[in-house]
Amino acid sequence: MSSSDGHARAHHPHLADHFESIEKQDHAARLGMWLFLGTEVLLFAGLFLGYTVYRHFYHETFHHCSRALNITLGTTNTIVLITSSLTVALALWAVRAGKKNLAIGLLVFTILCAFGFLGIKYLEYAHKFEVGELPGKWFRAEELMQYPAANMYFTIYFLTTGLHAFHVIVGMSVLIWVLKGILKGRYTPDYYVPVELGALYWHLVDLVWIFLFPLLYLI
Amino acid sequence: MADAAKETAHAKDGHHSHSATPYFVVWAILLACTGLTVWTGYKDLGSVNLPLALCIATFKASLVIWIFMHMNEAGGTNRIVFVTSFVFMLVMIFGVFGDLWTRNEMSLPSHVPSTEGPEIAVPEGAGPPAHHE
């Protein structure tokens, strides 16, 4: 390595030893994130496939069981997630524009939206437990007993929304970590890739819900 | 590394000229689409309901991916990687549909054999009446 390379390296404190330049490091980080998001899509695809198969077999059952869900709460949660997707995109924009306080406010709002989503989800789950609209052998909702395999609808409901809620918790934790970094002044208009990747993960959580909501609530 | 150079160029452009307006526009469209999907969800449009809901959801997802997730700024490799996962999801779903659409009555879950033991040649109408509908 020439001495001028060594000099250029010293200019970027976030450049790891094994990368030639910050551009290549950022590119590798983004590519890694997109690869991971691709595997996430495939993870949920398995559940969507299960949904498709059971809905095909028990079309009427799925229609009647979906009426047991609260569309108002589902729609509210959709709006909460879409809005949080907007604010996390704006937070990244603010970091890139060097508006630190705006970025902090937007991220805090996004994290509050995540808590709000989980709170509403809790209300929905609590009601399901109360009336026995549960998966498998725990199913005891009498008014839905007449439909064959009604429990399968709730198995799929809890598996898909449960895995999604888990992603909300992970995404929220990632955003809290990003927020900590911003508070410490670690991210600047010259170095914001961790903020970008955290935001990407949060958008994926929104993406999954965009499909789950109509397929579960509005059939 | 053309992609890396492209991403950097976008990042540099983004510093000052980048406006936040597109994000608000996308947000408004997403909310409007949510309203539309809920409204059509309440209506009984027969077999149109599901394809319509999926079309709206796909449109919303594309907006999120293109603008919020900055796929419009992403390098070619990142695009290929993410789109490929959707291609394989479709391969999996349509592969399974090939099975679902071509099944024999006997291998449907709604088919109940009249006696225990191996399922052989149950004459039509000999099974117990279906308990649904």
Describe this structure in words.
The complex is a heterodimer of chains A (219) and B (133). With 219 residues, chain A is an all-alpha fold. In chain A, 78% of the residues lie in helices and 0% in strands. Chain A contains seven helices and no strands. The radius of gyration of chain A is 22 Å and the shape is elongated. Chain A starts with a helix and ends with a helix. Chain B has 133 residues and is an all-alpha fold. Among the domains of chain B are: 20-69; 75-101. Helices cover 61% and strands 0% of the residues of chain B. Chain B has helices at 2-14, 21-42, 49-68, 76-101. The radius of gyration of chain B is 25 Å and the shape is flat. The termini of chain B are far apart. Mean pLDDT of chain B is 79; it is low at 13-17. The chains are: A mainly alpha (219), B mainly alpha (133). At the A-B interface, helix 2, helix 4 and helix 7 of A face helix 1, helix 2, helix 3 and helix 4 of B.
Per DSSP E runs of 2 or more residues, the count of β-strands of chain B stands at 0
Biggest sheet overview of chain B = none
Helix and strand sequence of chain A: HHHHHHH
Q: pLDDT under 50 segments of chain B (min length 5)?
A: 13-17
Q: What is the helix fraction of residues of chain A, given as a range?
A: over 70%
C-alpha end-to-end distance of chain B: 62 Å
Shape of chain B: flat
Structural class of chain A: mainly alpha
Name of the CATH first level of chain A: Mainly Alpha
Give the terminus-to-terminus CA distance of chain A: 63 Å
Largest sheet, strands/sense/barrel of chain A: none
**SS-derived structural category of chain B:** mainly alpha
User: What is the CATH homology-level superfamily of chain A?
Assistant: Cytochrome c oxidase, subunit III, four-helix bundle
Overall 3D geometry of chain A?
Answer: elongated
Helices of chain A, by number, come to 7
> Roughly what percent helix of chain B?
55-70%
> What is the gyration radius of chain B calculated from CA atoms?
25 Å
Task: Please report which band the strand proportion of chain B falls in: under 5%, 5-15%, 15-25%, 25-35%, 35-45% or over 45%.
Answer: under 5%
Order of helical and strand elements of chain B: HHHH
Q: How large, in whole angstroms, is the Cα Rg of chain A? A: 22 Å
The oligomerization state is: heterodimer
